[in-house]
Amino acid sequence: MPQLPDDLDAVAVRTWCSLALEALGRERAEIDAINVYPIADGDTGTNLYLTVESAAAAVEAVFAAHETGTTAPATADAVRAMAHGALIGARGNSGTILAQLLRGMAGVLADGGDAAHLSLALTRAAAAARQAVAHPVEGTVLTVATAAAEAAQGDERELRAVVSAAYEGARAALARTPEQLAVLGRAGVVDAGGRGLVAVLGALVEAVTGQAPVRGPRTGPGKAAAPVDGGSVVGLPVGGVPVPAGGALVEGPPVGEGPLDCPEDLDGGGPAFEVIYLLEARDEQVDRLRTRLDALGDSLVVVGGDGLWHVHVHVDDAGAAVEAGVEAGRPYRIRITHFATESGHDVRVQAEPAQRAVVVVVPGDGLAGLCTEAGATTVIARPGEPPASGELVDAIRRAHAREVVLLPNDAALRHTAAAAAEQARTEGVRVALVPTRAAVQGIAALAVHEPDRGFDEDVVAMTAAAGATRYAELAVAERQSWTMAGICQAGDILGLIDGDVAVIGADVPATARTVLDRMLAAGGELVTLVLGEDVPDAMADALEKHVREGYLAVDTVVYRGGHQRAPLLIGVE
Question: For strand 273-280 and strand 330-338, is the pairing parallel, antiparallel, or unpaired?
């Protein structure tokens, strides 16, 4: 059994991030399902998952940089990486607030990870999150964070006692959120963002104590489940009064009469767009930006510091929100999502929906054009910017069909795509998710798509075509690292086959030939090459010639992928 930490060191931070990611992956769908505030767009769980995924990746990068050394990274490096990763990868309102909570904790934990520092870190985090929100509302993740911080206070307590107390305080506060926020009480659910924070704190308990926190039963007699954390639930008896996992009635005002500190009520509609961007700007510019964005819309959250900020706001004029960012500094990674039917602003009369459509995620503009010509609705996943579930739901709506086949084309998008499919099904669309892991598998699936045959038959054919396509990509190594093919150095060309490093080479053409030979050794009839924007046509000609001369019965097709992460994608069917 691994030694349990006496303080929150770098290894414990790494473990915490990993466990939090696992917990949110398990609970993502349930958190999405109870997302009714501030917008019922069903993506809070997914947004929290993607935010923590970015935080965990940043911590892993710190550890990877120390692989050749004999000591682990400093705690300060790990917690700062966690906070920075969450900041740049934050998604949605809840993810942005979580990023600020982690940033607030990191500012204290960088100086020490004992019980006293952790208690202070939770307090600073809760205060920082409230300060980042333009109009704090009780009954939300802010309330849960404050309760966790208050429960963690105390003299001469061990680290294990502090994290356990914080978790239990958060759970108790979460169970009370339907009393505090009318929209939650009417829906009979707890706050989705608060539910996600409880999962993150539960992971912290497990990282420190070595044991997952004890959870209550998942169901209770006479109650409809509305989950609180990984195992306990808040239920609704027939009378409609929220009941915590233990079964006792919650004392407080009747449902629908709890305090609501925000003048906005979901039933009255809201802004049409969610606008998110990273911003490089000075502090004084951000203060003015907050004032301007607050006048434009609601759900305003601005987090960050030291020249880098993450901006989230709901507005009707998305252009004005971006323009405000331009005036304040340099905005980038700009994301604009139309709430469409949730916000009530999409009042256009639409034509009769088509019977079937395909929605496909593609890594570049070139493949987007190819798939559009084939009749698919596309979502572009730009380097370092995977689409959120809200973008996939919006694409499904744009496809305007009764039946939709969704091709995510990336194993990392499995949770996001599943959340989007679930949301679309609640809107009456029949969605089938084909678990394609690469763009070349999506191309193969799209090639056999026949909208005139039965839906199930079409999905089976597309799934079979994708499954019969082996995939590979070339990448440039960023640092020295151990791989399945040996040790690579920064600048080496890596050939990944079916997601694993199989070839380490010095240049793109030679590595590509080796990868092709490895893949074709198992047989094949068709090779698909997708070239990045900087790869010359001459290399495609040379690879096509290599296949033609070495494998007489194999055909080759070449596509231009445009601006994509990998210089070359390869598929073999």
Answer: antiparallel
